[in-house]
Amino acid sequence: MSISKQNREASDDARINELLADDIQKELSFKIRRLPGNLVLRFQIVNVVLLALEITLIISNNVQTLGFWASFVTTSTRYREAVKRTRLIYAIYPTSLDRYHLWRGWIVPSALAGGGYIAMSLLCLRHELYHWKPDLLQHYFETVHASRLGRLVPQSWLAYCFRIYERKHKAYMAKHIQRRAALRDSAQFLKIVRVVSFNLLISILALLLWWLLLLRTKIEADDPLTLPLSYVPPLQGVVWYLCNDFFYFYPHWIAHSIPDEDAFYCNLLPKPIARRLHSLLRQAHKTHHRAKANLGVAAWYCSPWEQLLFNLFPAFIGPLLTQVIADMAGVEDIWGTKLVTLYVWITAAAVSSVLAHTGYRSVWNDPGKHDLHHERAFDPKAACNFGTMGFFDWLHGTKSSIPAADSSAWKAQRDRQAALWEASRRSGIALTEEQMTVVKQPDHSTEWVVKDT
Ligand SMILES: [Zn+2]
Ligand SMILES: [Zn+2]
């Protein structure tokens, strides 16, 4: 058979799959199958988990007690008693501390938020294992195979490992938002781990201070078992989120905006104070922008001042504020901050910080918004996305439309890819290389801002 005839047949086969995929995408059953993944992609994993927790709360309050929270409190109390019985703690622990409920108000939330941060960072770090180009890895494999020790390992094993790596590398490239590498070398990684560990320590101490302040209100610390009414956590969540976005957005925006007549804060404050404020906030925030490409574990890579001012204070202020208002209004029984809501909030805040910095778009998590912020950080004309979930960015017109457009393009590619696989299954015709790699990250490298911090 002539080569041109073979090419024609291959292109006819490819066309059959394309036409079949067009029809499949119109099928209701296909749309239903795609729905769960697309919903997670739309609402993101943290919001999906929060929704699931709210559903269990509604069931527990109205249908049947599920007992998850009671069993968590019982287990936690058992651990507390076990720790108190250890020789060291028994020797140094004054019982007068009992009234501060340090275990449930400080130790447990610190463990949940810190553990959440560390676990999510480790999960997201696994992507970085696959950032080497396969050609480079093949070179290493060949070197290993040629070595004396390597000759003892069967070639087929090395080839098998290489194929797995190649596949993972392709997936990594299809999901990594920027073409830049997030890490320069291992020394830089160790520096990140050092700084983040210190900030975790600061966070634990700040959490103690926060709990002691909460104890000065009428927060219910003696009875952790009572669940909140079903409508309270979502409403509190909205208020706490708005507080968080407000206190994160404005200092962050000031840190990135040069104090000229266009900057909003220059019209509100005397010029010397505005300049000083900008300089202090920018200085505190500069460390965080160590690189334009993001890395999950580096979410809290920042100066201690930034950790306190940008990350902890905005997350802590909401629950404290609503508790104080509830006390003043005499409705603390209903609207007071419950421990269970506090735990969920603080853990979600820590995990969300990591998820915003993964630099890696997946069905579970799309950090495109904050990724673009890092990419354009200190360019006064292009800097954008200073908030967390976007309310104040929307209000002040600092929200970029690029991440949302990228997300919907990526979702459309994923749907097309799934339809093509289904078409290939039905037609029995293999997909072409091009048809197998429909999902690609939108490439903005041509618009990259070269300006350094
Ligand atoms: Zn950041
Ligand atoms: Zn920034």
From TrEMBL:
What positions does the domain Fatty acid hydroxylase occupy?
238-398
What does the entry list under GO cellular component?
Answer: membrane
What main location does UniProt list?
membrane
Q: What UniProt keywords are attached to this protein's entry?
A: Membrane, Transmembrane, Transmembrane helix
Q: Where in the cell is it found?
A: Membrane
Question: What GO molecular function annotations does the UniProt record carry, in alphabetical order?
Answer: iron ion binding; oxidoreductase activity
Protein's GO biological process: lipid biosynthetic process
Q: Per the UniProt record, which residue ranges are transmembrane?
A: 39-59, 106-125, 192-213
For this protein, the record's PANTHER family field holds: STEROL DESATURASE (PTHR11863)
Q: What is this protein called?
A: Fatty acid hydroxylase domain-containing protein
